[in-house]
């Protein structure tokens, strides 16, 4: 009884504070509405022009606020919530972000245009929030969301699991029930991510299957600014790449690491619209399949990536035929990444000198898994007065 009275007193105090703040904000709300649409304009017209980086941060912060307020507005309308019911929310509660309505993010509009549309949307939803005294709820969640603005996140399937127990019919004994326990991947890392800031996602584990991916797919698809994806698995289920990659819109950078075979390359060649948009593509295979079929599938992919700027390959896959195809077809390349190099630094130096000659002196080469050899290569190139190689 004593605990109940304490909770009632606490809720009453919070309600009084909320009412007080609402009266204060409502007095100036009309003025804020008039000036809200000019706030960001003044920042970059009357003062110093913002950089594209700072403007991008402003747009995504505003997008976070608009999405959160829309989610709270939707919840409030559906539940017909009173002020008292707001206290039922715990700090662990989440609102489901409906990022699909942010159409201008998926368009080719400039950051300035995106900002203007966001400001207009913000004005509409902000009035509802103020009229229904939801300000405190909004900002308690908004602060938590904006404290997580990481642009790169990594999710390991094998390290993120939780047990789920449920009752199901016993197949061996009809009419009986049995207790079943299964292990499922947790998506806490993805759920907690701010969907308006994540640009690069790494998924890793032992085996990537369609079934395991579907359990986290909703969390991946809500990352509407996602342009870089790394899939690092020992095994890839047949058909899983063809399922995943086309469904994530606007990917520009893709890195595939694992036991890639000619069958997986064939899957990639079947999704030309996806390949046509890529600017960076890594195909790092372990163990390497060195067959004429694999080489042919690689060359088939080169025909489908006209905008590719950076290519990553296992060095053992390089041969004269593939090298010529790269130089003839991928004329927009500005760099290459090599993995699993096995050979002498002299062999690598000769290859780099040749590829720099085929392109230009600014062509970059990187060995992401062998920084020691990379530094030795840079030293040898400088010593021989060949154009220096920069780490990509």
Question: Secondary-structure blueprint of this entry?
Answer:
Layout (H helix, E strand, L loop, with lengths): L1 H44 L6 H28 L31 H21 L3 H12 L5 E5 L4 E9 L7 E9 L2 H5 L7 E9 L1 H5 L2 H5 L6 E9 L3 H5 L8 E6 L3 H8 L2 H5 L3 E6 L6 H11 L7 E5 L5 H10 L5 E5 L5 H14 L5 E3 L4 H13 L9
Parallel strand pairs: 1-4, 4-5, 5-6, 6-7, 7-8, 8-9, 9-10
Antiparallel strand pairs: 2-3
Helix pairs in contact: 1-3, 2-3, 2-4, 9-11, 11-12, 13-14
Description:
- The chain is α/β, with parallel strands linked by helices and 392 residues long.
- The chain is built from 14 helices and ten strands.
- It has helices at 2-45, 52-79, 111-131, 135-146, 188-192, 210-214, 217-221, 240-244, 262-269, 272-276, 292-302, 320-329, 345-358, 371-383, and strands at residues 152-156, 161-169, 177-185, 200-208, 228-236, 253-258, 280-285, 310-314, 335-339, 364-366.
- An eight-stranded parallel sheet has the order 1-4-5-6-7-8-9-10. A two-stranded antiparallel sheet has the order 2-3.
- α1 (2-45) packs antiparallel against α3 (111-131).
- The longest helix is centred in the N-terminal third of the chain and has 44 residues, at 2-45.
- The radius of gyration is 27 Å and the shape is elongated.
- The protein starts with a helix and ends in a 9-residue tail after the last helix.
